[in-house]
Specification:
Length: about 425
């Protein structure tokens, strides 16, 4: 019975991906299926409603933070913050090292934005454009970008995946980040070496595009536009609460929109709601986006997905899967069990958020120490989801940058991180 229920849910999600429609519809079908299962098991509708609500409460703060991120990324675009960072970064690019620089620059921007999707739509697009102009291999370049955007998506203090993991495990995000940096150090350095070697032997040629001239058609480029990004970095170093950190950065970006870009208050508020929209077509292709509206779909995915956790626990739907993973973890370490669960959830849910929640649900008994469990999730499901071609964690960034699916083979960091952690855990066993 449970297997049939899970297969029906998987079918709904896969159909959404095939038909290119929002995953929200598939998740709503799943919600109906799971509620029907709960009713079949003898639970009253009121009890089922309580289960759903208890699951949602685990992630309600994440939904709120998503809207903060929507406003933040919109105002960073409008204030010139992203443009100035990109222009300064381009000075570091050498045609002979284009693949390595694509990786590093996307690491940098993803750390500042905390979003793989936003990074792929900005620096990812720029890196791909520059690399293609220099004759770099599109698959290698796409792999470097895919790796880079998930360095920050995993480790940034304003990353929704990092925030989600800390909420699920009830751990401190800044403590988690320190541990994430340590576990990612050698995979990161080895990835840099690999991309450096690839760049050396498959060197590009050509000139770096003058994006400063492009951006200046639409906005004033001034060093002060970096301040909202610096605020994030400085306050994060002092472990200031995430929502407050983002709030201060939002205010700073709003002031810059008014003072530097000469926007009135109503225009700024509109940008917060609907996102930034440039008049120049070339600038629009690189910078348009952000805003609360852009987060509605993903917020709905989070809200619905989080409600699953309550009904799974209340009905015992996943008990057999949990038992299998517990037995498996005794042979291949708890982290090995988490990796297996991560591949399973990433393949069937088609999105990083739900796969993280399901992996947490399935594996929370494997690793009793929550601080260790948090890092195990960050070193597994967070970076495994982007390796599944039909998962939106992979499909959306590759679509944004127009890279082939073969790019997945060259996303070195995403392979090396779980591999290094698994070897370390196996050695300790």
């Amino acid at each position: 019975m449970e297997l049939v229920i899970l297969m029906l849910f998987c079918l709904a999600i896969i159909l959404c991906v095939i038909l290119n429609i929002s995953l929200v519809y598939g998740l709503l079908i799943g919600l109906f299926i799971f509620c029907a299962y709960g009713r079949h098991k003898g639970f009253a509708w009121r009890e089922i409603g309580t289960m759903l609500w208890s699951g949602f409460l685990t992630a309600k703060n994440i939904v709120i933070i998503f809207f903060f991120i929507g406003v933040l990324t919109a105002l960073w675009r409008a204030s010139g913050t992203i443009s100035v960072i990109i222009c300064y970064s381009l000075g570091l690019i050498k045609p002979q090292l284009i693949v390595l620089m694509a990786f590093l620059l996307n690491c940098l921007i993803s750390m500042l934005l905390g979003s793989s999707f936003a990074t792929s739509a900005t620096m990812g697009v720029i890196s791909m454009t520059l690399g293609n102009a220099m004759g770099a291999n599109p698959a290698l370049l796409g792999g470097a970008i895919l790796s880079g955007i998930y360095v920050g998506d995993r480790t940034s203090p304003i990353s929704t995946s990092a925030l989600l993991t800390s909420v699920l495990t009830e751990t401190n995000i800044y403590d988690n980040i320190k541990k994430m940096v340590r576990t990612a150090l050698w995979p990161f350095l080895l990835s840099c070496c690999l991309y450096g070697v690839v760049s050396f032997f498959l060197a590009g040629s050509g000139k770096v595009l003058d994006l400063a001239a492009v951006f200046s058609r639409e906005m004033v480029l001034h060093w002060s536009a970096i301040l909202p990004a610096l605020i994030i970095i400085i306050l994060a170093c002092f472990r200031v609460q995430v929502k407050l950190t983002m709030g201060v950065s939002i205010i700073a970006a709003g002031i810059l929109c008014n003072v530097l870009q000469h926007m009135d208050i109503l225009h700024i508020l509109q940008i917060c709601l609907t996102g930034y929209h440039a008049h120049d077509k070339e600038v629009a292709a690189l910078l348009n986006g952000g805003g609360i509206v852009s987060m509605l779909n993903v917020a709905a995915i989070i809200a619905i997905s989080s409600s699953y956790a309550g009904i799974f626990e209340g009905t015992g739907l996943l008990n057999n899967v949990q038992a299998f993973l517990e037995n498996l973890s005794k042979r291949i370490t708890p982290f090995g069990g988490i990796i297996v669960a991560s591949f399973f959830t990433a393949m069937v849910t088609c999105n990083q958020t739900l796969s993280t929640m399901l992996t947490h649900q399935l594996c929370h008994k494997l690793e009793p120490d929550q601080a260790t469990f948090a890092i195990s999730l960050e070193d597994s499901v967070i970076v495994i989801a982007p390796l599944i071609p039909w998962n939106i964690a992979c499909a959306v960034p590759l679509t944004n940058i127009s890279a082939p699916n073969s790019s997945i083979a060259f996303a070195f960091f995403l392979y090396l991180l779980p591999l290094f952690t698994f070897i370390r855990k196996l050695h300790k066993q």
